[in-house]
Amino acid sequence: MSLPPGFLDDLRSRVTLSSIVGKKVTWDMRKSNMAKGDFWAPCPFHQEKSASFHVDDRKGFYYCFGCHAKGDAVTFVKETGNLGFIEAVEALAREAGMQMPARDPQAAQRADRRTELAQVMDEAIKFYRLQLKTNAGAAARAYLSQKRRLNEAAWDRWDIGWSPDNAQAVVEVLLAKGISPDLMIASGVVAKSDNGRLYDRFHARIIFPIRDGRGRAVSLGGRSLDPNARAKYLNGPETELFDKGRNLFNQSPAREAAGKGKPLIVAEGYMDVIALSEAGFTAAVAPLGTAVTEDQLRLIWRIADEPVIALDGDTAGIRAALRVVDLALPLLEAGKGLRFAILPGGLDPDDLLKAQGAGAMQAVLDGAKPMVQLLWQRETEGRSYDSPERRAALDKVLRGHLARIADASIRSHYVEEIKRLREGLFGTRRPFQPGPRRSFAPPGGALASTRSSLLAQGTGPVDEILREAVILAILILHPGLIARFSSALERLDLTGDDHETLRQMILAGSELPDLQAKIQASAPHALDALLSRPHVAIAPPVRNTDDSAMAALCLAEEMAKLEARRGARREIEDAMEDMDGLPDEGLTWRLTKAAEALHKSDKSGPSDNQDLGEDRNALSRHLQSMIDSQVWIKKTR
To answer: Does residue 161 sit in the same domain as residue 277?
Structure first.
């Protein structure tokens, strides 16, 4: 959102920095000179006893001589509240009584509507809080105090309430406040039955207000005390205020606590968050009746770089943790991770805190595992790997997980950690020793013939990247072939720079005649880098974009050769990885011959070393047979 010129200056002129900072610090009256707008206090950004934090009200700036924190009122609210810039401006505007500028008339209308719905929520919460203190709320009070061990001060801190069994009570109260039925329904507090009668959606439930990142009530959660209720917990529906997949319970207080250094804990439900916060773990949040969504995970990472997912130790809790692992793998990036604290004995945080106290909870958090260990545990726990086939199956599953990690640096570190865990599981393999140990290695090490073999000299993955580039270029320049080869394209394990970006654009733009222009507009650097490669530029389908039949033949050949080379390289790498020490010359000779055979077949294709214009019929027959047998599809063995 852009702010109009002069808005921030006007805002700063309406608030004094000392009044904003004074809510977070205690002024040193001996050192401060309030008459001159000169204030000193211990710094709120780092732990200290001396007053090294200086506020100059006349200039509107603060500075700490200890940690060197500095800024103005917006910066202070942003840093102490762990807010975004616009959120900090909005908080200051509320403090100053200023209206935030609307983007346009429609945006202003939507803002007014949201304000009206928020007022409905506030009125309903007031009513529910009062009901908790009446005779009608006696059972709810007993449950909160005896089973949940929450005192009245905690009820007030969390705005906990009680919706009476009378489903018309809140409707009547809201009508008396002049609130229309349309707004009641739109807020999610009230629902309409099939016969048109309005009723309280949450009647006969303990009420937990749900607030957004700015602290506004946007929905309600209700906990039934009836053991036969269809749903123990009930969340409000999706509304103009509330999107359950984009909000977190206790989001705003947790963000502020995390900004002060508290570890962010992600629990399963309201009561876990309340119990954690009341026990001192104030940076606690929970999803709202759903599994953690991608939007919620990104929101969690905006609050803290490495949150702890604290889930119940039962089967459902473990499943929930593993769903988060699957969700997070493709989203990982440097500095953004997850740790998992699985609670013992099927307990949830509330149970553990009541039974063993905050120390036990802290011990669980201290023992939180990094995500890679949970992933490894899922795939290996309770299984036996006493055969090559089972070990190969594990490797295949793990490679599939690792391939989903988009960040190349993180993927490489995961590969190293998985390799370390794999060695610990399988142990170190040693060569077969029938009787007394015999050395098959020649005295001078590997023979010269071995060192000079194609296996030892291997061309590496560069050739594969070039083939990837040719495949992508052909599809971009001949979009009519995309539908025919889309399945093969989706399965390709791309490794070249920007190749994944181009693949996604190709699949999204299937059969568009202007695909190249669209890619040029969206990813010019990637397309220019692709088409400027000499190996790509000389490819016949790139030079001649009018011959689709020839392009299809070349595409099939490139895919087949890429699959052949990549499959052979991986097989050799896997074999070499499992070897301990120098292999005997017989094994080396066999692998060398295999590599030579692959090399010869790769070089002997009819399109190599001759122009496609020469012997076109022979080429067509050869490549048509490759297309007919779909040789680019990896065959199972």
So the answer is: no
Please check whether residues 274 and 307 belong to one and the same domain: yes
At which residue do the structure tokens 């399963």 appear? 268
What one-character DSSP code corresponds to residue 333?
B
Q: Are residues 122 and 222 in the same domain?
A: yes
Cα–Cα dist 474/482, whole Å:
10
Question: Which single residue is written with the structure tokens 């009680």?
Answer: 162
Q: Quick one: 92 and 153 in the same domain?
A: no
Query: Which residue's entry shows tokens 């793990």?
Result: 398
Q: What is the CA radius of gyration of the chain?
A: 33
Residue 312, token pair as written in the block: 């119940």
Do 201 and 318 fall within a single domain? no
Q: Which residues pair with 235 in a beta bridge?
A: 221
Contact 189, 236 (CB under 8 A): yes
Predicted local confidence at residue 250, as pLDDT: 95
**Residue 424 resides in a domain:** no
Domain presence at residue 414: no
Q: What are phi and psi of 195, to 5 degrees?
A: -90, 10
Q: Please give the biggest Cα pair distance in the chain.
A: 99
Domain assignment of residue 22, yes or no: yes
Check if the beta carbon of residue 290 is closer than 8 Å to that of residue 237.
no
Beta-sheet pairing, 308-311 with 284-285: unpaired
- Yes or no: say if 371 and 325 are a contact pair by the CB < 8 Å rule: yes
Place of tokens 């508290």: 262
Strands 339-342 and 308-311: parallel
Query: Which pLDDT belongs to residue 129?
Result: 95
The pLDDT of residue 171: 96
pLDDT of res. 108 = 58
CATH of residue 27: 3.90.580.10
Say if CB 542 and CB 534 are below 8 A apart: no
Neighbouring-strand partners of residue 224:
205
What are the distances in angstroms from CA 610 to CA 84, 546, 606?
61, 20, 7
pLDDT digits (tens, 9 = 90+) for 209-264: 999 887 889 999 999 999 888 889 999 999 998 988 889 999 989 988 888 889 99
Question: Helix (H, G, I), strand (E, B), or coil: what is residue 243?
Answer: coil
Q: Determine whether 548 is exposed, middle or buried from the number of CB atoms within 10 Å of its CB (0-12, 13-18, 19+).
A: middle
Q: pTM to 2 decimals?
A: 0.57
Q: Do the domain assignments include residue 532?
A: yes
- Structural domain including 31 reads 7-96
Residues 6+ apart with CB under 8 A from 428: 580
Residue holding tokens 């726990």? 381
Helix (H, G, I), strand (E, B) or coil at 466: helix
3-state secondary structure 391-431: HHHHHHHHHHHHHCCCCHHHHHHHHHHHHHHHHHHHCCCCC
CATH of the domain at 142: 3.90.980.10
Q: Are residues 223 and 311 in the same domain?
A: no
d(CA 173, CA 123): 9
Nearest Cα residue to 467 out of 494, 440, 498 = 494
Could you tell me the sign of the dihedral formed by the alpha carbons of 243, 249, 253, 254, in that order? negative
The domain tally of the chain equals 4
Q: 352 exposed, middle or buried (CB, 10 Å; 0-12, 13-18, 19+)?
A: buried
Residues of the chain with pLDDT under 70: 1-2, 5-6, 102-111, 427-461, 497, 510-513, 568-637
Distance CA 613, CA 110 (A): 65
Q: Is 219 helix (H, G, I), strand (E, B) or coil?
A: strand
